[in-house]
Design a protein that fits this description.
mainly alpha; globular; 343 residues
């Protein structure tokens, strides 16, 4: 879509985007309607069950607040809580082609065409992960798929972190401690007032090439003489999307298989809200680190959030493994008791 806005005729680009939005609207409506028809019996059963329940007056008056509290309470007590937290923490990342990352790439010299192609490659690797997941699911458990994907995701994230210290990187750990009028000692040429990544994302209605910035009123931005850092960062980000989608599918499948039907809607809704909340946290971090020289801190923070997610998933795997062992042990004891009774 960003590439379309670079066309000379903006009305053509607007028409294509509007047509795409209309087609998407009808496609989503058809898919939602089909889902409701297929799940009609379940929805009717849920409605009848709720109709017979009497709720206190205070609960009726504060229905929304109680619903939120009950949802989070049920999610916190469920056995899949740590698995849901693991997937949610992976959302707090700039290691994805979003507005902040795209603006950083363009500021460093990538054209809008290059960014669009990289975003397309990122999407293709994610789609590839969705096709590989069912194949692995027939051979491996969900826990092993998740752990394997997280190891691969960690390696790709480490490649992105290492790009902070490669040639061409604008990363300056001491940038915030320097006076505003001093130029950082770097291989890049910066203005005395570096342009903010967020200012760039908000003020520019479309991605522009580095040549087109000369005709704008934006302050000079950093154009990398050496693109080694940016290429390595983009490669790690694109390949890591393959593992990210496998982790996301693993978490979704765990919620579907391990949660009881009457609680599935509540737990999945809370999990979705938690994912969106942590996804928005990257914009909060970008507000305080809104310069190309500090974008490296956002990369490191994203990797740290991922490590927290890995830790939560390991905790879930250990608990689930312990529950399976207890179940097998109890099953063996019951079989032995049954044999003793038969004899």
């Amino acid at each position: 879509m960003a590439q379309l806005m670079t066309l000379p005729r903006k009305d053509i680009a607007a028409f294509v985007i509007g047509l795409w939005s209309c087609l998407s609207l009808f496609a989503e409506y058809r898919a939602t309607r089909r889902t409701c028809l297929l799940a009609g019996d379940v929805m009717l059963k849920s409605t009848k069950t709720k109709a017979h329940k009497k709720k206190p007056l205070l609960r009726k008056l504060c229905k929304s607040c109680f619903a939120i509290y009950e949802g989070w309470r049920i999610f916190g007590k469920s056995r899949v809580c740590t698995a849901g937290l693991a997937v949610a923490f992976l959302e707090a990342t700039v290691l994805i082609f979003s507005g902040v990352t795209n603006s950083y790439a363009v500021q460093q010299g990538f054209s809008s065409t290059t960014v669009a192609l990289l975003a397309g490659g990122d999407a293709l690797t994610g789609i590839l992960g969705t096709f590989v997941f069912p194949v692995l699911r027939r051979r491996l458990s969900l826990e092993r798929i998740g752990l394997t994907a997280m190891v691969f995701h960690f390696l790709c994230g480490s490649v992105c972190v290492s790009s902070n210290w490669l040639p061409g990187s604008p990363f300056d750990p001491w940038f915030l401690l320097r006076p505003s009028g001093s130029n950082p000692s770097s291989t890049l040429q910066f203005s005395t007032t570096p342009a903010s990544i967020l200012d760039f994302a908000v003020n520019s209605s479309t991605f522009r090439t580095s040549e087109s910035f000369a005709s704008t009123n934006f302050p000079p931005v950093a154009v990398a003489r050496d693109w080694t850092s940016l290429i390595v960062f983009s490669a790690g980000l694109t390949v890591g999307r393959f593992a990210f989608w496998m982790i996301d599918l693993t978490g979704s499948q765990i919620l579907l298989e391990s949660v009881r039907e009457e609680q599935r809607g509540t737990i999945c809704a809370v999990h979705y809200a938690l994912k969106k909340l942590l996804n928005r946290s990257k914009y909060v971090m970008a507000l305080g680190l809104a310069w190309p020289q500090t974008f490296g801190f956002l990369i490191i923070a994203s990797q740290l959030f991922s490590l927290v997610g890995y830790a939560f998933f390991v905790v879930y795997c250990r608990k689930n493994y312990a529950l399976k062992r207890q179940s097998i042990f109890r099953s063996s004891i019951s079989k032995l008791n049954q044999k003793g009774v038969d004899q």
